[in-house]
Amino acid sequence: MTDTDHRDSYPPSPAFAAAANADASLYQRAETDRDAFWAEQAAALHWHEPWTRVLDWSAAPVARWFVDGKLNVTYNCVDRHVLDGHGDQVAIHWEGEPGDSRAITYRELLAEVSRAANYFTELGLVAGDRVAIYMPMVPEAIVAILACARLGLTHSVVFAGFSPSALRQRVDDASARLVITTDGQWRRGKPAPLKEAVDEALSANGSTPHSVEHVLVVRRVGIEVAWTEGRDVWWHETVAEASDQHEAQPFDAEHPLFILYTSGTTGKPKGILHTSGGYLTQAAYTHHNVFDHQAGQDVYWCTADIGWVTGHSYIVYGPLANRATQVVYEGTPNYPDEHRHWQIIEKYGVSIYYTAPTLVRTFMKWGREIPDAHDLSSVRVLGSVGEPINPEAWRWYRDVIGAGTAPIVDTWWQTETGTIMISPLPGVTATKPGAAMTPLPGISAKVVDEEGNPVRLGETEANGYLVLDQPWPSMLRGIWGDPDRFRSTYWERYAEQGWYFAGDGAKLDTDGDLWVLGRVDDVMNVSGHRISTAEVESALVGHSGVAEAAVVGASDATTGQGIVAFVILTAETTDTGNALVEELKAEVARAISPIARPREIHVVPELPKTRSGKIMRRLLRDVAEGNELGDTSTLVDPTVFEAIKAGKS
Ligand code: WTA
Q1: Where is the AMP-dependent synthetase/ligase domain (predicted)?
Q2: Residue nearest (by alpha carbon) to ligand 1 atom 13
C-alpha cells in the first residue's frame, strides 16, 4: 500500500447525506458529553425501569452500564413494534436453500417467541440458566434466541458447522440444561444430519455426565433421527402447541444475555459474555447509524450465520430492535448456482447488504457478468466485516454491486466488542478503499506502540497496535468462568493505562484515518472466521501418526488467510505420502470444523525452535509465503530450513 492510496476517497452524494440518519454533529455531541450521548442512545429503547447512572467503571475492567435500569431485550425487539401498530410489517423474509420461503410478520414473530418462552418455562428453565443453540439458518433459531432473551436464559449459540466435540466442550463449559437443534440441514440440495452430532456430543467422554436435560429438535429436512426417550422432544409437538400469550418480565441491564465462544491463542475457546442493556443500546445505535437503516422502508440483508457474533448483533438484536424488515437466507451463495444472492436481492428489493470480504472476492472470481444480469438498483448501502477488505475488492463491490454510488461501510469490531466500533458513517464519511476510517461517535480507539505511546501522525503512515481506551456499552463483561483469563488476555498488555488490547495491528494514514491490518497474535482469520493456531495444532497431534505440529496462516487470495501446517511424524509412521496428508486434513475438519481444514500440510523432519523451545512461527510464515527468511539467528539449528523447504517441495 502506498501513501497515495488515501487520496482516493469517496464522499457520499449530497442527496444521501441530506437524508441520512446520522450527520457530523453526532461526533460533536458524543465528544462534548459521552455519558449523555450514550444515555440518549439508550433512551431509544423501552426501559421498564430507568437507570440511575449511565456508567460505573469502578470495578474495571468489568463495566456496568445503565446501572439499576431494567428492560426486556425481546420486548424491545418484538413486542413494542406490535404495540406501536407495526404487527403486520414483515420482520423476516426467510429464504430456504431448496427454494421454499416464509414471510414472518412482527405479530407472528411475537406469537412464535411467546410459544417457545412458554414451553421453555414448562421445561423448568429459569432466568440465568444456559441454553445451547446448535442450528442452521432457520427461523426457529431466531425464535429460540429471542425466547431465551425474553426469559433471561443465557444463550450460547454454537455454529452448526462445528464438530460434536466442539459442541460438547461448549455445552460443558457453560453447563447448558437445554440444547436446541434440527434433524438436519440442507447442504447444496442434500439433507445432512445435525441432531446426530448432538447425540454424539452428549454420548462422548464415556460415562462423564453432562448438564443437558433436554434436546429440543426442529424438523427441517425430514430425515430419520435416533431418539432418546425422556430427553428428546420435537419442537412441532411442544413449542408449536404452547400458548402464544406470554408477558415479558424486566431484567437488570447487566443480566447475562449470551455467551459466544471464540478462538483465542490457546486451544481452549473463550466464552465471551455479553449482558443486556448496554449491548442492545449499542447494537441498535450502530445498526441505525452505520447502515442508515430506515424502519419500514429498507430491506436489510446480513449474510452472516447466527453462529457468529455478526449474526447475533446484525441479524437478531440490532435489526429487530430497529424494526427492520430483513432477509434471512439458509444456504450457500452458489446453490443452485452463482446467481442466488442477486436473485434474492431482486426478489425482495434488498437495499442494505452486509457481507464479508472473502465473499466479495469469491463473487469477483465468478465474474461480474453474474451480478450484471440482475437488477440491483435497490441497493443503497453496502457493508463489509470480518477482515480487512483489500482495495481491489472494495472497488469492485462498490462498482458492480453498488452501481458505483452506494457507500461502503467497512466495519471493524470483534466478538468481544459486541457491536461495531470503527466504521464510516455512510452519510458523513468520505470513505477510502480498505480503511475502517474512524471510531464511531461515542467510541474511542488509539493506535499505539509497544509502550503505549500514540503513533505519531506525520508525513508518513504509522503502524502500531489497536487499543480501545474508553469503556463502551456493548463491551464484553468477561470470559465465562475465567476472570483471570479475561484480565490477562485483554487488559494486561496495557494495564498501566487501563486500555483494552484488541489483538489487531493498525496503521494511521497521514489524515489520521485508521486501517486495520489484521491479527498480531496466533489467531488466523480464514474467510472471516477466527481460528487459533493452537487448536489446529492440537487436532493434528491428536492423530496417532503425528508427533509435533506447527500451524501458521498464510495469505490467500480468496479466504484472506489459508491454514498451512508443518508436521513431524512419529517414528512408527511409515506412510508419509498424500493419503496421510488427506487423512490429517480430514481429521482437523472432523475435530474442529470443515472451516479449519488446512489448505496445505507439509511433512517435515524438524521445526524451527528458539533455544527456549518456542516454535518460530514467523519463520514458518515466511516459508509458507515463499518469502526470504527473516532473522534466523535465535534458532538452535538454522539448517533446519533446508530440510523444511525440501519437505515443502
Ligand atoms: C478482524 C467479527 C479488518 C479483526 C465481527 C478482529 C476486521 C477479528 C474487520 C474479530 C474489519 C473484523 N477490518 N479486520 N472491518 N472486522 N476484523 O470476533 O482481526 O469473529 O480482531 O468478529 O476480525 O473477529 P470476530
Answers
A1: 83-480
A2: 388
